[in-house]
Amino acid sequence: MNKRVVLIVLDSAGVGALPDAHLYDDEGANTIGHIAQNTELDLPHLRSMGFGHIQSTYLEKDTDAIGAYGKMAELSPGKDTTTGHWEIAGQILSQPFPTFPDGFPKDFMNRFEKAIGRKTLGNMVASGTAILDELGEEHLKTGRPIIYTSADSVFQIACHEEIIPPKELYAMCQTARAMLVGPYAVGRVIARPFVGKQKGLFKRTGNRRDFSLEPKYTVLDVLKASGHDVIAVGKIEDIFAGKGITQSNHASGNAACIESMLEYLNQPFNGLCFVNLVDTDMLYGHRRDVQGYANALMDFDTIVPEVKDALNSGDLLIITADHGCDPTHHGTDHTREYVPVLAWKKGMKQLTDLGVRSTFADIAATISEYFNLNERFGAISFLKEII
Fold first, then answer.
1. Is the same domain home to 335 and 247?
2. Are residues 157 and 238 in the same domain?
3. Fewer CB within 10 Å: N-end or C-end of the chain?
4. Is 101 among the domain residues?
5. From first to last of its 387 residues, what are the pLDDT tens digits of the chain?
6. Which residues are registered as beta bridge partners of 5?
7. Calpha distance 316→305 (Å, rounded)
8. What Rg, from alpha-carbon coordinates, does the chain have?
9. Contact at 8 Å (CB) between 202 and 132?
10. Do residue 241 and residue 380 come from a single domain?
């Protein structure tokens, strides 16, 4: 009988500051806890899997919950998407990806502009929506791409779709990706297409693409090499640069990703379906929209029963996050937090506390053991605590 693992990443749904959060100016951050304290956050189906039992979520405990729950510390340095997802998949970084709080060096920008045949705008740390208000109209007049970064290891290029079409923007990103090596080797180059006619009306589109560094070795590679399916939904394909993936749907936004995931679950496959739900981070965490974040969580909660119903007896559901993005915290960047881990499969009889895991890679170890593979990525599987 086929075995399947459904791994869902609720992007940025952290559950409290890590002990080293002070190194990132993130002391006191708690994405889920602060949203729960500031809204009428109701997640009955996630609580039925034990979510309310995770310390610091400030969610009501479901005394009848069945499943396994815990939280995980990030062992890798950093707090960005690529670092978090790679560690979930088993690759733990020893050094953080470089960041550029003062923008990218002038010599690099000169070389990049020469390579793409255009001058650029920006080259600063900025919020993705704020920089469109600041430089969008100048971009329309000059045709110059907008370059910006953040506290994350990213090189972002924003272009209006009528001025520089997405296909041309993606080519610029590929040029940047090839140039951003050595000390400039950022985790991701991100294409940020937008539309709109004037300040206040600019809006990013669903044609975003991420051009990541290629990971060295993850559970995706192990599964693919052993003949299993590795299905990527949402930006997973980009985060792993396509490595270790057998098929994908580059769906944009939670609704499309959830629809794609359910379509895959209604088909036979043998392996992993890896899903990223980005809206909590991109639309609400970075924009400090506490109620919007709560609404997105509650929307996801409503489909949890449908996901469970789509699982077969040999399937395993794991729900986690990749970092925090506390919308009540200062700034608009990610926050260095623990992430939740929830696990469930049909036939479970009780609630199990998985404790505080020392690395996100425990998920990769668990998936590998679930498929009777030997690799553990230097982590500890929690499979025996579930089954």
1. yes
2. no
3. N
4. no
5. 689 999 999 999 999 999 999 999 999 999 999 999 999 999 999 999 999 999 899 999 999 999 999 999 999 999 999 999 999 999 999 999 999 999 999 999 999 999 999 999 999 999 888 999 999 999 999 999 999 999 889 999 999 999 999 999 999 999 999 999 999 999 999 999 999 999 999 999 989 999 999 999 999 999 999 999 999 999 999 999 999 999 999 999 999 999 999 999 999 999 999 999 999 999 999 999 999 999 999 999 999 999 999 999 999 999 999 999 999 999 889 999 999 999 999 999 999 999 999 999 999 999 999 999 999 999 999 999 998
6. 272, 316
7. 14
8. 20
9. yes
10. yes
In three-state secondary structure terms, 135 is helix
Length of the chain: 387
Q: What backbone phi and psi angles, to 5 degrees, belong to 165?
A: -60, 155
Among residues 134, 119, 132, the alpha carbon closest in space to that of 196 is found at: 132
Boundary residue ending a domain (159, 192, 212): 212
Which tokens is 81 given? 């998407």
Query: What three-state secondary structure class fits 68?
Result: strand
Beta carbons of 231 and 271 less than 8 angstroms apart: yes
CATH number where 185 lies: 3.30.70.1250
Token reading at 333: 């960047």
For tokens 């998985």, name the residue.
354
Q: Are residues 192 and 240 in the same domain?
A: no
Could you tell me which residues come within 8 angstroms of residue 382 by beta carbon, excluding any fewer than 6 positions away? 68, 70, 343, 354, 357, 362, 365, 366
